[in-house]
Structure of Monocarboxylate transporter 13-like isoform X1:
Amino acid sequence: MASRFLKTACCADMDGLLPAEVRSGWQAVLSLHVTWLVWTGLTKGLGVMLPALQKDFESSTWLVGWTIAIINGITDFAGPLAGPLEVLLGTRLVVMVSGVLIGGSLIASSLATSVTQLALSLTLLSGCGIGFANILTRAMVGRFFTTHYTLANGIGHAGHSVALIVFAPLTQLFLDTYGWRGAMLLLGAICTHLVPCGALLKKGLTTPNHESRQRDYTLLADDPSTEDSEERTVRGNKCCLPELRGVCCTWAFGLEVFRKTSFYVTAVLYMSNRLVNDLWVIYFVDHVYAKGLSGQDAVTFTAAAGVSNLIFKIGHGPLVDRGWVSLRAMLAVTTAVAAVCLFTDPWLDSYWTVMANAVCFMGASGTIGALLDVYTKDLLGADNLVSAFSWMGVLSGVVTISFGFLPGWIYDVSDSYNGAFILMGCIWCVSLLAMATEVVMTRLGWITQQSVGKG
């Protein structure tokens, strides 16, 4: 039944495309799925290893936690380079090299003897690799899918959910069996699976200027005055200048999003979502320890939360695509639910209440993460996705690096994460305020939606 629905969605969405282009669309979804799997797996794996790293390096909780947060911050800072690299090298090569960088950084970090060495290895290599691959695959899915974009995007983002389910117990197994250095080596090998995913991508179908270049060729061919006298000049310019011109245009259009009011609304939502999710993934296991529960309990909670995240991340797609629930209503409700889960967390200490809270939170959080890409496309349009994702990532990186240490510092000071989780709930309230502002500004005509549809 599920495969039949996916096949129908694919055919309905890509009726005008060749079979090779249809395959490329779903290969892009697969690459996005694996990119999220690698990113969340890396972050969650380091979160599980946080107590071991803290003990081995004889460091404080906030410093090791901040190091993991900085990795995500550098990932965001690398975003603006993704567009120019895509034009120069193609998405296929960029994603393949990104897989090598991520896997190599984890293997190299297994040799680290200090927190500084660990941070340098992971931030400089993994951060850039994840940033490039994530932005380019997300934008590619946005270009290929229109009517069923919410479903395709949800499947791609489900890699985050699968990582929560798989990587927490897997990393704990590696840690117990081989120590944190052996766990790093094995995680690095797993992350290199992004390389073959990049190899599946078709270079000619993934460049952002593909459609515009096709229109340029058509216009020149239909113009009889240029076909004879200027044919050689045009061909020479087409051969020599498109990459350079594409790079310049990419940089120019990348900065153009700052002139759009709607960009700042989506940026607030994106920054809030990224910060809260990063902090939860990094500190949740240690938070469970602080409540007096075991490491095995923490792994079980994370796996259960991952299952919930996966179900909601895929399940919300048909609801929004078919118009049963509006995009903004779904986004507002799930954000409110996530905030309530964080506010009530300090009063939940038993096994089942902590598990229920984690399941509820990650279910709502998974829906939010997938919907934000749809929300961004709705406000800014498909042509601005690479630029929007890149610069929202940069802003998120600033926030993550600035506040990534805060939960660990609160724990070191108060011997509890309760204040940190309440603070994270307040951040979600900022998102609700931003969504309310967008509704008002749309009614006043200050913001115009770029795409019209059920999604």
In short: Confidence is low (pLDDT under 50) at residues 1-17, 204-240. The chain has 20 helices and no strands. The two ends are 22 Å apart (CA to CA). The first helix runs from residue 2 to 13.
